[in-house]
Structures are given as structure tokens and as C-alpha cells.
């Protein structure tokens, strides 16, 4: 409760958080002053008023009717970056003067753009360091040295490699099914990493079906898998490869949500029609609720 008597205005995670009834008791017995609570509420309401989210108040700065979201996001990212050291005035680099560029590490191709957990926002697309160098240093020779990142198990498939076979758009098709197998509703998703946290699943849902077609960059054997808790069925190219229960055997809070048990099976993707060098595999999985 010590933090509640300082200028910390709210506690995460929510919506209840760790204060709740404990904070109420601390105010009633005098450990936290009512003035401190009043200051917190005032600061929160002041921010809401400043951005126009509080009834009766106009925003301090008028929101533009037309906004280039991508440009604003880029400008915010640039302004938020801090250059701690620049020995010898090395930066900024002149792309025209570069003879070669080496990009090293797992995240050279698999850009890590979010912090994870509640900070994660699934972007429509992202640009990896490798692809960014290719775009901005077209005349320099480029050398990629990826490093395998171990210990992660099944990794999410990059969105550009997924094709929604139902809607004909990038990503995957998610269908919510009733107990008798009838479709309640469906939605198109860009990412293969899906989390529902309390909302988003229609009432009466007994199973969720996910369908996608995956195109690999090169031929060869791939281990295709899924991570979840509960009964799961996985089919590849119409062949059922797993039908069973995945159970969380840990006592770690959130482990079943962010690092669930997994199953995978080796698969050699079949060549896409008319393009033998571009293999693809149709994947379908169903998760049942109990």
C-alpha cells in the first residue's frame, strides 16, 4: 500500500488490480490519506478532459479530421528514440557510401516490434532490419547471418506467409462453432497467434476452428504445431495429425495463456499449383471448450 500514498495514480494489471478492497481499508484506517486519493482522481480526470474523453470538455488540441496514421507512428517512434552514444560521429550513415552491410541474429529477419503481454499490438505489417536495409541500402552488398533462437518451441508464422482459404485474403479464418457444429460467427485474422482474454468469444461457443494455407519460403520438412490448453484437433492437407488433450501442468500464473503446452508434427509441404518452388500446406485446427 506504500505506493498508494505516493503520486502513483493507478495500479496494473486491471480492471481490479492489487489495490481494490485493500486500498479502501487503507483509506478507512488512515494509512492512505483521502487527499492522496483526491489528487489521483483529479489527475486522471484532467488527462481525460485534455484529450476530450470527459463529457463537457473539449480536447486541448483538436484532433485532425484526416490523419496519416503510418506517418504519425513513424514520427512518434523517431522522436521517442534516444541516441546514447555516437562515437566519432558515425551516425547517421550515408547509404550511398556503404559498401556492405551485415545483419546478424534471429531478429534480423523476425523483427521483434512489441514488448509482449498487455503491451502487444498486432501490426498490419512490420519491416525487419534485413528488409529495411535492403530497401534503404540498395547499392551495398548485404550479408545475412541468422541465428537460431532456441527454447521457444512453436513460433508464430509470419502473416505474409498465411492465406485465408475462406475469404481469399492474407491471414487465417477463425470460426466459432456451437455444440452441434453449427457456425455462430466467423472473423478474418492477420496473425496466427490468437489470445482471447475474457471478451471476443460469442456466447454458446463450444469450439473454435482455425483455417489457413501456409506458403514456405523454401522446400523441406517443417514441424507444424499448435499451442493451447484443452482438447485440440489438427489436420494438415485434410489428414488428421493430432486429436487429443493438451494440459497445463505448471502452477505459474499466466503460463497457460502466454506459454501453453504444444504439439507439433513434421510435414513436407506440397508444391503450390503452377509453382513447384513455392511449397504450401493447408492447416486446420479446432479447439473444444469443456
Mean pLDDT: 81
Number of separate strands: 12
Q: Give the overall silhouette.
A: extended
The largest pleated sheet is described as: 8 strands, antiparallel
Radius of gyration: 25 Å
Identify low-pLDDT runs: 274-280
- What order do the SSEs take from the amino end to the carboxyl end, as H and E? HHHEHEEEEEEEEHEEE
The assigned structural class equals: alpha+beta
Provide a count of the helices.
5
Q: How far is it from the N-terminal to the C-terminal residue, by CA?
A: 39 Å
Helix content: 10-25%
> What is the chains' assembly state?
single chain
Strand content: 25-35%
Protein described:
This protein has five helices and twelve strands. The strands form three sheets. Strands 3, 4, 5, 6, 8, 9, 11 and 12 form an eight-stranded antiparallel beta sheet that branches. The chain has a two-stranded parallel sheet with strand order 1-2. Strand 8 and strand 9 form a beta hairpin. It has 290 residues and is α+β, with helices and mostly antiparallel strands.
Tell me the layout of helices and strands:
Blueprint: H1 20-28, H2 34-50, H3 69-80, E1 100-104, H4 129-136, E2 141-145, E3 162-163, E4 172-177, E5 183-189, E6 207-215, E7 222-227, E8 230-236, E9 239-246, H5 255-258, E10 262-267, E11 270-272, E12 275-288
Parallel strand pairs: 1-2
Antiparallel strand pairs: 3-6, 4-5, 4-6, 6-12, 7-10, 8-9, 8-12, 11-12
